[in-house]
Amino acid sequence: MRQIPTRPSRPRRRTAAALAVGALALGGVVALPASPAAAADTGVPNGDVIANLWQWNWASVAKECTDVLDPAGYGAVQVAPPEESLKQANFYWWDVYQPYSYSLDSRFGSAADFKAMVDACHGAGIEVYTDAVINHTAAQTGTGYAGTTIGNKYDTPDYDPADSDDCTKTISNWSDQHEVQHCELLGLPDLDTAESGVRDKIVGFLNKQIDLGVDGFRVDAAKHIETGDMKAIVGALHKTTSGETPYITQEVYPGTPPALGDYYANGDVLDFTYAAAMKSQFGGGDIANLSSFGSSWGLANEQNANTFVTNHDTERNGYTLSYKDGATATLANVFQLARGYGRPSVYAAWNFGQSDEAPPHNGSGFVTATDCANGWTCLDRDTAVAGMVGWHNAAAGSAVANWQSPASNVIGFGRGNAGFVALNNSSGAHTSTYTTGLADGTYPNVIDGGATSVTVSGGKATLTVPAKSAVAFYDKNYVCTVNCGGGSGGSGGSGTVTASFGAYAATASGSDVYVVGSTAALGSWNPANAVKLSSTDYPIWKKDIAVPTSASLEYKYLKKDSAGNVTWESNANRTLKTASSPVQMNNSWNVANADATDVTFSVNATTAYGTNVYVTGSLPSLGSWNPADAIPLSSAAYPSWGRSAIVPKGTAFAYKYLKKDASGNVTWESGANRTYTTGSGAGYTARDTWK
Fold this sequence. Notes:
The protein is α+β, with helices and mostly antiparallel strands. The chain contains nine helices and 39 strands.
């Protein structure tokens, strides 16, 4: 019996109502607590902060997403490598960085547990990023957590010896870029990512996760992969289930070739220099030095920095602060969230006595449920850190302002008029009066969960900050409207109104649509500060943005591909006049508002399973004959495929239908180009049958 084809893959939507499956036991896997059903989103705004729940099992991650991360306002969770890995008698944390197979049955739970975790986190509005170990396979032979046995380290279920790089020696000359990227890291077989067949297997593994709902990846050992190979891998990834380009952050340790900046075109990079600066200033320096903190400190490009105070490698080798530094490390995390540079991560793992030991497990290596009172360091739950996530979200886009340092190791600063924080890294309490930039009033102190409050009068507040602690407060109604990202901040929420931007735009895989315009809230015409729109309802891209009231604005849409290349609309600047009521813009790429009309394309076409139908044509809004930019049609009324498109009024154009299979192969319908002419009205329909 013939199966009905799926709808085009790009418009798939994440549903908050999806239910998580109960956890299952696999062979010797300990029966994990069932993951909770996907909870409804709490409605708390989810920002860009990543909770790195390193080597938590899947059921514990799911529960943390619903119970902690969403209510606090985290935006994403980063989890351990999900593939099957080495299992040995003496269990170590680094076993999971030795892949045995691309099966999703691991020491953290079964494939069903993994899917349940992703669904539960999505239901709470939290994106999921996995640790992608794609540079190498396992150095040690033996048996994996799903039962895979390996007798030759170059011969695994996914790869044979021909898939490894020719250089089989362990890297010793770290100044030789070729050796760094083609020889073996710690004896781990280096995959030859220059080979398309190897990249196809890697892409298949990552796309399998994306199709299950994964939203992005932390690429382990990215430094050891040629940047061109990384670009090819990233460029072949599917869109996420919410229609977005997957988030990519890359582990590129600084100091030896290749250069950190070489990887910017492929995504973010982990900013080890940032983490080292946190240790140097909070762990023995003077945090007053941080007044100049920024790119001049040798940090990664702010647009590409994924910052952290510590991670699993650096807390063990002494490069950074760790949980063993107690309140000092917590205070550094408070600063990270307050200062705003790049995209921040908060790390939460477990206590360790010696650096190699594995996370708490059941005796067979399978990780047990996270118990924050017994063996686990749940920094993401810390009252001060969780409170600062909301502070960070409210201050997003506002510049650092009102920097003050009344004493050594004591600082205070604001972010525009959104929020203010004072940090005391000294050994005794400190009292001072600070200029806050906030409107007069009483604000809860988020550092202690609102147990105390702060009174601002005349823009100033007298704060007593305990030793190794902070005081932080913010205006929950504040929206940045001017000088966002530079200057001294802007006006309060009363001067803004919601503008709902909607643009009908077909895009090639890896490209996204942004809006940019004449006000700071729209990026002040700077493409780097343009506002990314959501493709949940692709090919319609949309986002609600707070813009100034009673203003005359101009704006335009642009596209950015995965390499950062920018394509602007070719039509004249669009105009928008705001008053005090919300406004809505319904636009189409390269079509001026006054000249636009709609045409519903409908074609009767049968397809094989996994193949979808598209329309393209001679107009930019129809993709200009580029199959990559063709508009996907809906199969809801199969075998009739249809969708409306926005085109200019009074215009003759040509068009044609095409099919794409799951591998991206394109089949055009036969015969001459079809033609259509619009008039001055609206609501046109083209009814066709595949030729």
